[in-house]
Amino acid sequence: FDVVDRDVQARAFVGEARGMLLQMARAVGISSGVLDDMAWISDMSYGVECIRSYVDIIHARISKDPANVSLLQGFFLKLSTSSDGPIERPTSGTPGGAGVSDYYSSKLISFVRTVLSIVPVSVFAIIVQMSDIFERRLQPLPLRVPVEKLSSFAQLGERYKLSMMAHEVSIFANGILNMETTRIGGKEISPREFLEEGIRREMVSHVAELFNNLLQFDFAADAETVSSMNKHQAAAMRSLNSLGGRLEGLQRALVSVEDYISIPGLTMWHEETARILNYNVEQEVNKYLLKKVLDVDSRYQSNLAPIPRFPRTENEATCINFTGRVVSMLVKITDAQYATFSLERSGWYSADGSVVFGRNNIALLRKAIGVIGLTGIDRLLCYRILHELHRLVKFFRTNVTKQGMLLEQLRDELSPQWKTPANSVAIYHSGSKKTEMLMLPMLTCFRRVGQSQLLRRMIKYELQRCASKEAKLFQQKIEIRNAEILISELIKDELDVSEVKELSLLTNAIGLGDPINTIFMTTDPMEGLPVLLLFFVINYVPKLSYDPVSGSLAKVKSGYPIDGWPIVAGISTLLRQFHPSYTKAFLGYVGQFIRLSVQTYVSRKQEKKEGSSRLAADLKTAIVMMEQLCDLSNLPDSDLYEHVPQYLIEMCSEI
């Protein structure tokens, strides 16, 4: 007995016996009321699990005969009544009774939603079949139909099928619409709301899948020839056309049955497609952001009608979803290596004059992804531009700053700008050689930024055209309100920030504003930038020549990745991020170079030296580039004439 407290096995046995005795004492103290409550709760829990086994049977019966939907009301009423007793017992007089009631009520409501889910699934399946008839079989009816062609437009067979499908939809919907609001536990359920939520859920899933499947573009890695790129461009346009037709047919089908199922079909369509597009744009923007927007933080995601996420494609692994693939497709088919941009003709054209991406193509893109989709593409292009500008600024800080003494020396030698410096030819030649290693990164940045800006310009024009055609009064109202806010800003009136943000979204939707004037970032001054841009122009002017057919600067050597208008747009966008003195200094340096080139050309022509024709071509290219820069940047002609006299420009244009 004395060693029991030191025996480990004996101490363990005594501890277990003590625990059992304590449990027995507690069990003896349980009242009969608690035992009854446990029995009711157990019965209710088992009942909920048993009811789930009937879901498949109910779905099969409704699918076989839609009229059986009307029988569900009695089933739900019986279910509600049977749950009142088990819930009332444990909740009466207990502090947590409301929580117990809410828990089981939510379980039953979830079960009701599961049972009724067969109705919106079946209804939307019929709507998809109707959309196929609208898209592929039913001919569009013109405003005026000749009598002799009336029978061909009648298409009685297709219209009979549509009427039968609409009748079947009405049978499904009537069973739901005839149900009254039912109270289960402490909550009310509305079958009408369940029907609308279910159709929204099915529509979101179907439309998101259409966007993901049809907006996949197979650009092979070895597609380095113009012919192969033309094939990919044609395939991409076919995908956009197919998507536009499918979505239009689905919209027409949804609108045609909205009266039968008592829902705002067109409103639902616009709300959900806008939510899908905005959500995907938001997720695609994440690759440019340090702080990502997750699904739980997204204001476009919903638990009732969740937007599905799809895995990335193998061909476009860098793109998160279809919006990124659309931007990638636009960038690839309009690459300077394969196409040349023409501002007068508003589009990209190949060397043989065929359209690569023009007004009809941007209209086709709008038909496929809508106005919200175009504004989303514009937003992605803005982030792409900002990313490239940040890369250029970082490159300038890390590499060009090391050449600070060189740029300062060149700036001093070229000053003042109105005067031709001594040994200017040697200065330009030496500066071009010393800055040659810095030119390629700048060319890459200007190409990408300018290409994105020109794409944004086309998107803005398409939005303007669409708004002036389909929403003229709305467009004028937004323009007037925008002018009012600008005037209020000038007179220092207080502005509502939320209203300004909302108006900004509306102005983007109608295409108001010039993309070239967008300020993307604020940064510290970059000393020597105008001088560096001067030598960039000197280095790449010989690689361009003026094409009077397209009114643009085209590459001299085919296949070289350079194009006039994207370069001009890139330079204009970069200068827009700094003080206007940078633009003025750049025009001054280039004007000084043009005046010297004119003097050199005249002297060589008088002495009949070789190279005068090449110099004349480069001189004309430089003048055209400066004229295009002033035109694109909305600068007055006087800014250019201040450095290059007008008579000199007119004389050089006739060379």
Give an account of the 3D structure.
The protein is mostly helical and 655 residues long. Helix content is 68%, strand content 4%. It contains 24 helices and seven strands. It has a three-stranded antiparallel β-sheet with strand order 3-4-5. Strands 1-2 form a two-stranded antiparallel ribbon. Helix 6 (118-137) runs antiparallel to helix 8 (156-177), helix 13 (359-398) runs antiparallel to helix 16 (439-470) and helix 21 runs antiparallel to helix 22 (612-632).
Question: What are the salient characteristics of this protein?
Answer:
single chain, 655 residues
Task: Please give the structural blueprint.
Elements: H1 8-28, H2 32-51, H3 55-64, H4 72-91, H5 97-116, H6 118-137, H7 150-154, H8 156-177, E1 182-184, E2 187-189, H9 191-214, H10 226-261, H11 265-285, H12 322-333, E3 340-342, E4 347-349, E5 355-357, H13 359-398, H14 404-414, H15 424-434, H16 439-470, H17 472-490, H18 497-509, H19 529-540, E6 544-547, E7 552-555, H20 564-576, H21 580-607, H22 612-632, H23 637-641, H24 646-653
Antiparallel strand pairs: 1-2, 3-4, 4-5, 6-7
Helix pairs in contact: 2-4, 4-5, 6-8, 6-9, 6-10, 8-10, 9-10, 9-11, 10-13, 11-13, 12-13, 13-16, 14-15, 16-17, 16-20, 17-18, 19-21, 20-22, 21-22
